[in-house]
Write a structure and sequence with these properties.
Largest sheet: 10 strands, mixed
Number of strands: 18
CATH architecture of the largest domain: 3-Layer(aba) Sandwich
Number of helices: 13
CATH class of the largest domain: Alpha Beta
Structural class: alpha/beta
Strand content: 15-25%
CATH topology of the largest domain: Alkaline Phosphatase, subunit A
Number of domains: 2
Length: 453
């Protein structure tokens, strides 16, 4: 692990042996790429046979792939709040989706806490320049905009989803911003976000301080709207593919090309070697758009593995050898916060729910406490069930869940049934059922102390 003493000794040795340079003394840059609603199996490197994603595949091959990584929720806002705060969603103030208001529909299920230190605020204190490129989805007005919570540079979309990837409007409102300025850019949102990330990294290539970039794409969230030429290419290549599946494949392949441009620019400018790059998704893929969360059951909005497990990798050329795989260690989105803080040698003194997985990146197979760690998921939503939460809890190989507020709980053993196809009757494991339900209720009570309206 990085410790201040080790860094001092290391820098002293380098200084004694060779002339110092800014690149050698500079802390690693951070690039976190979060895509929206990507199915676990919807990458070439994750088993998709009708999908060509060479750039993301290369990113996975360049570093460490995590085969047991979870989003903090089954939907967008809560996972993003956990990433920024290092807390479970309900403890971050965002137990559900923060809605972009429209006439006759004002239900919103979260309000990001303003009494916590966010990841960009923490990294700023450690000397980082911080930027958000792309989707925000955690508030439209002060004090909940990106520039209010630690991002020194914001170029992107304030709202939840776009109604059109080319007009960038949501409920006829323009939420595209440069800082706090309203802008009206032309082009597909995926291309714009890729361009803006490249522009930002270009501006930082000679800077003395490292950067932290949160690159958050809307794709492949609906509307499933790839550029026409990308869609035609997929249809020509994949005979028999459905119209719906072809649209999703094309949207993801177009996204892959944009990510490839961002990574290639880092390599061209010499920033790649000193950049920790994380790729992940905010939740699983939406089944209604024919996303594939293979090999798992379920999808977006489900507490099944298909709604929570997300394809994730970390590339760090100076530290992680290509082709590494973390098979069994479990991490969640909120664990990225303490991991980056530890890499930056920026100790965290405030409370976090997340735990650093830096030892895994440096070769450990497990971390002390892994076996005892309980994991929780909560989502609060309106609709037909009236704002009652549904939730899941995992302890070791055991998982208890329900996917809405009125259905019975279901108990699974993920070691014997990793795809959650055989729920275990309550009478077969009554004590395990009681233990997990008690754990879940205790967590919900903790989260209930946080006001979010």
């Amino acid at each position: 692990m990085f410790k201040s003493l080790h860094l001092v000794i290391g820098v002293s040795l380098i200084s004694a042996l060779a002339p110092s340079s800014p690149a050698e003394e500079k802390s690693p840059n951070f690039l976190v790429i979060m895509v929206d609603d990507l199915g676990y199996g919807d990458l070439g490197c994750c088993g998709a046979t009708d999908m060509q994603t060479p750039h993301i595949d290369a990113l996975f091959a360049a570093g460490m792939r995590f085969n047991s990584f979870y989003a903090n929720c089954t939907v967008c806002s809560p996972t993003r709040a956990s990433f920024l705060t290092g807390l479970y969603p309900d403890r971050s103030g965002v137990p559900g989706v923060i809605r972009t208001p429209r006439e006759g529909f004002t239900t919103s299920w979260g309000n990001l806490r303003n009494d916590v230190t966010t990841l960009p605020q923490h990294l700023q204190k450690a000397g980082y320049h911080t930027a958000l490129i792309g989707k925000w989805h955690l508030g439209l007005e002060a004090p909940d905009r990106p520039t209010d919570v630690g991002f020194q540079h914001f170029h992107g979309f304030l709202g939840d989803m776009m109604d059109d990837y080319y007009t960038h409007l949501r409920h006829e409102q323009n939420y595209m911003r440069l800082g706090e300025q309203v802008i009206t850019p032309k082009g597909h949102a995926t291309d714009l976000f890729s361009d803006w990330a490249i522009d930002y990294h270009e501006s930082r290539k000679d800077a003395a301080d490292p950067f932290f970039t949160f690159l958050a794409y809307n794709a492949p969230h609906d509307p499933i709207q790839p550029p026409a030429d990308w869609l035609e290419k997929v249809k020509a290549r994949e005979p028999g593919i459905t119209e719906k599946r072809a649209g999703l494949v094309a949207l993801i392949e177009h996204l892959d090309a944009g990510i490839g441009r961002v990574i290639n620019h880092l390599k061209t400018t010499g920033q790649w070697e000193n950049t920790v790059t994380i790729f992940t998704s905010d939740n699983g893929g939406a089944l209604r758009y024919e996303a594939r969360n293979f090999p798992f059951n379920g999808g977006k909005q489900d507490m099944l593995e298909g709604g929570l497990a997300v394809s994730t990798c970390v590339a760090w050329p100076s530290t992680i050898k290509p082709g590494q795989v973390s098979e069994d260690h479990i991490s969640l989105t909120m664990d990225i916060y303490p991991t980056l803080a530890e890499i930056a040698d920026a100790p965290v003194s405030h409370e976090l729910d997340g735990r650093s997985f830096l030892p895994i990146l440096k070769g450990a197979e497990k971390i002390d406490g892994d076996d005892e760690r309980s994991l929780y998921w909560v989502r609060l939503e309106g609709g037909k069930h009236g704002g009652v939460p549904y939730h899941a809890v995992r302890m070791g190989d055991w998982k208890l869940l329900r996917d809405d507020s009125i259905s019975p709980y279901r108990l699974y053993n993920l070691k014997s049934d990793p795809y959650e196809t055989k729920p275990i009757p309550r009478q077969k494991a009554p004590q395990k059922y009681r233990d997990l339900l008690s754990e879940s209720m205790q967590h919900i009570n903790r989260g209930g102390k946080i006001p979010w309206r």
